[in-house]
Specification:
With 367 residues, this protein is an alpha/beta fold. The protein has one domain: Deoxyhypusine synthase (Deoxyhypusine Synthase, 3-Layer(aba) Sandwich). It is built from 13 helices and 11 strands. The strands form 3 sheets. Strands 7-2-1-9-10-11 form a 6-stranded parallel beta sheet, sandwiched between helices. It has a 3-stranded antiparallel beta sheet with strand order 3-5-4. It has a two-stranded parallel ribbon with strand order 6-8. Helix 2 crosses helix 13, helix 3 packs parallel to helix 13 and helix 10 crosses helix 11.
Amino acid sequence: MADNTLNTKPLKANEAADKSKYLGRTIEHIDIIKNPGIVAVVEAMAHMAFSSRDLNRAADIYDRMLRDKECGVILCLAGSLISAGLKKVFVDMIRNNMVDAIVSTGANMVDQDFFEALGFRHYIAGEELKSGLYDSELREHAIDRIYDTLISEDDLRICDEVTGKIFEELEPRPYSSRELLREFGAYLDKNGGPKCADSIIYEAYKRDIPIFCPAFSDCSAGFGLVAIQAAKGDAPHMSWDGGKDFYELTQLKIKNKETGLLMIGGGVPKNFTQDIVVAAEVLGHDAPMHKYAVQVTVADVRDGALSSSTLKEASSWGKVDTVYEQMVFSEATLAVPLIVGYAYHKGGWRARQGKRWNQILEPANVA
């Protein structure tokens, strides 16, 4: 059994410590499949109040999405979710036809999921490190901090190098992030081995589930894109086409009118995914609003930002229907295992067929 005792002994600023001193205990990804008792917990929440009852309704809505055979389910990921231990939850969703497309920040997919698929790990930071008092010391050891988790900068640089190699081998043309992440999946399929068995990118690649990163340059992949731009100049080279991302994502709404959203966090993934309804209409198609929508967030209207805009507000824009929508104001590592675990153990996904949307987004099929 892993030792989860917190190390609360203060670090000395002048201590000549080895890097391994900080990188001892790894983040372990929570396994919802091994916890069937989640259903009873979530069902009990229906008789409570505040966020508990909201979470119960959100779990029920997600289960309804999975039982609606016409509905295509889109998972939106924002924030540091993989480094926090949620990777296996999303992998199990992919393996069990509980999601048909993913729209994510680049950091979740490249800096965290692909990073771990290469054999690297995220580490638990000692309680004292959360204060920020020792960040300069971590910097001296080439260790990056994500609140209470740590990651080796040296390992990240290797991830950057692999990303650059993948880009260098591509034919010179514009690519959507979906196409580029398919190449990442192909790389893992060829070179990954057992260590990539629980990778989101790899599992999605095997099941033709598209992954979009609408702000793709805002992660390690961006360094590779910058490097190629600098090296090639005006010569032909691969490039990332953000407009192609939005166009392809909109095609999913055009070709599968019934859609449901499970949004973790907000930001760019939430905005792009909600907007495909409007984009489809701009292209001359009759696209109904997203039939189902759940958002897990800690943002509220005081921040004045996209992450806090409610699903009811989105309805005023013609993006989300209000019959099956639910906001859950909770931190993701608390709410997501309960919502997804409930839906998994209820079993509505068992009669569901995956949409394999990557197949309809190949160049010959996108019109």
